[in-house]
Amino acid sequence: MSNLFKLEILTPKKEFFNSEVEALTFTSTDGERTILAGHAPMISTLGIGELRIKKDGEWETAFQSEGFVEVRPDEVLVFSQLCEWDKEIDLVHVQKVKAALEEEARSEQSISEQRHTAISLARTITRLKVGSNSKTRL
Amino acid sequence: MNNMNEIRRHIKAVEQTRQITNAMYLLSTSQMKRAISKMAFNRTYLRRIRATVKDILLHTNRQHVFLEDRGNKRQAFVVIGADKEMCGSYNNDILKAAKEIIGKCEQPYIMTVGICAQTGLEQAGFKVNMHLYGASQNPFVHHARQITEHLVDMYLENEIDEVYVIFTRYYSQTTQTIRCMRLLPLHIEDFERINVEFDKPRQIDFTPSFEEVFDTMVPQYMIGYIYSALNHASACENIARMNAMQSATKNADEMIDKLSREFNAARQLSITNEITEIAAASSLSEKAI
Predict the structure, then answer these.
(1) Among partner residues B42, B52, B150, which is closest to A112 by beta-carbon distance?
(2) Rounded Cα distance, B117 and B67, in Å
(3) How does the average pLDDT of chain B come out, rounded?
(4) Smaller CB count within 10 Å for chain B: N or C?
């Protein structure tokens, strides 16, 4: 049995990834999970975090936003709101967004606005982390 | 002479209007192309996410708040229109359909996208509870997220029982239809036309738990659907505007043609008059000598 499986990552804007891979690690709402070939059918959630793909022996890292994962016997499908390779994250821009969001969080807001800002802020901080990790590795 | 000046001014005015309509035509053409190219990716996402949701619905018989049919019907509607006018009957069509559907409900909660949708419904006597500007021309995922978060909150707090979205669905350059789609609660009947990609009975594991999976999955599905509805609506709006502006430009061309013909006739008439006058004057002066 081959140790490869088909992985597809879809976001509303584009098809992010579609290829045969060896392993997938994603951040679920309760922690990281790794999927290898032949995994039992499963549906899991995606939180905000880091997504890693092992392809041809090399790990590639990307930022992932909320969504869900469906493991089927024939393939693995990842639906995420936003995915971005770590190398493509524009750190300067994300820094700016983060500053603006922090400013927003300090101003007066309704409860739903507050939650919205908190989620956006969590997302930018993770993006920043994923992006700067890639820079230090180089 | 007066007549000639008047016609000249009229031609100038029509030419200026023609410039505007022509510019708007070119602009809406490029915007339509952009909207359609965005839709191409989105269509795959939506098809697959709907197939997956259907697949999950087929393989579970458990209860969840997003699945239950609450008896009393307080419906929420998302009506997607345009921010600007000048797009033919696009706004009227969507408003007509929306009024018909919403008119049947006792306690509708109305959310509009686009100024025209808001003012149109308010003029018809409906109360618009929330509106969103700027999302109809160039929709982003965060617009869809904003709408979804608000509606899901209301749904979970038991303020609304059902969520519908009314928008114009794009099929091709010439066919667009108005669709009213139920997003919440999820019903297997709404997925009838979707083909399941992997149709074998099997046991599906939900991790961390069934509840948590549904809590995240359903809003994701809604965001995907609303984003695609916004994209469809924006493509349709720009097609409608393109057609309206194209015929306006054509009309202006015809008008300029007609007016310049009138102008030439008037000019000729004035020249003829002058010649007659000169001839008459010279024959008079000859006689005087």
Answers:
(1) B150
(2) 30
(3) 86
(4) C
Give A53's contacts (C-beta < 8 A, 6+ positions apart).
A7, A17, A21, A23, A24, A25, A59, A60, A62
pLDDT digits (tens, 9 = 90+) for A107-137: 877 877 788 888 888 888 888 888 887 766 6
Q: Are A58 and A103 found together in one domain? A: no
Residues A124 and A58 occupy one common structural domain: no
Kindly report, residue by residue over B157-208, the tens digit of the pLDDT.
888 888 999 999 888 888 888 888 888 888 877 777 777 666 666 677 787 7
B276 in contact with chain A, both atoms CB, cutoff 8 A: no
Q: Where are the domains of chain B?
A: 2-22+249-280, 28-243
A chain contacts of residue B55, beta-carbon cutoff 8 Å: 70
Domain of residue A32, residue span: 5-86
For residue B146, the chain A residues in CB contact (below 8 A) are 116
**Residue B216 and residue A15: Cβ atoms within 8 Å?**
no
CATH classification for the domain delimited by B2-22+249-280, as one of 1.10.150, 1.10.357, 1.25.40, 1.10.287: 1.10.287
Residues of B in contact with A42 (CB under 8 A): 204-207
| CATH class of the B28-243 domain in this structure | alpha beta
**Tell me, what's the pLDDT at A53?**
92
Strand ranges, E, within A81-138: 83-85
Query: For position B257, what pLDDT does the model report?
Result: 94
Residue of B nearest to A15 (CA): B41
Per-residue confidence (pLDDT) for residue B17, from 0 to 100: 93
